[in-house]
Each structure stands twice: as C-alpha cells, then as structure tokens.
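User: Quick sanity check before I run a bigger batch. Here is a single chain. Can you write out its predicted 3D structure?
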Amino acid sequence: MVVSILIIAFSFGLLLYWFRYSCILLLRSSMLEVGARGGNAQFSFREVREQLRGAMPMDGFERALERDYHLLTYLIEHAAGLDLNSVEDRLLVVDYRVMQLYYRVMRSAAPESARSALAEMADVLSVLAGRLDKRAGVRSEA
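Assistant: Done. Predicted structure follows.
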C-alpha cells in the first residue's frame, strides 16, 4: 500500500515537472519568433511585461492580463479558422491558468514569485496573440 502511494506521488511529481518544463520550452522557443513582430495596441500584456521589470506595484496587472485573456479567447471562439487546436496551444492555455492560480496564492506570501507568475502569464498571452496574428495573416493572404 505504501509503495503504491509512493509510486503515484512520484509519477505525479514527474508529470508536474514535465508540464512545467514543456511550458518553459514552448515559451522560450515561441517568444523568439513572436518577439520580432510588433504587438496590437488593444492588448496590454506587452506593457504589463515591461512594467513588471521595474519596481511598480502589481495591483492592476492581473486585471489587465485577464482582460487580454478574455479578449483572446473570444477571438479564438468566434473567428472562423483561428482556433488553437494544437497540443502546444492547449498547454499554454493551461499554463496561463496554473500561473494565475499560483499568482493568487503567492501575491502576499512571496511577491517576487507572484511577479514572475504575472510575467509568465504575459508571455503566454503574447505567444497566443502572435500565433493568432500569424494564422490570421496566412488566411488573409490566401
């Protein structure tokens, strides 16, 4: 019985490690290709990312990122042909939600960890917006 619990706990730990490592690799590789393009003025995740590098308080950043998230998900759901069906895109959406939960837990206990969670949330939104922009550009050129 104890061995089964240890195996399950170890497997769950490895799953979490795989998830975090995969998300970090996806963000790093995607930020290189998305970073070269300019951003849309309606989204605030680039401004939030820049302001997080400074020592500004984090009060309104989560609301701004949540607004961007809802706008992106609305575009994904209602725009024909712009859906994010790949495993990578779905992993990034789950990563956004995990980092949002992590931010809410850590914002008072460890502000620097919460700041890095907000930065990762902004990165995820930047990558998703870049992929939507790329898909929309391909559709409009065709």
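The chain has one domain: 2-141.

User: Great, the batch can go ahead then.
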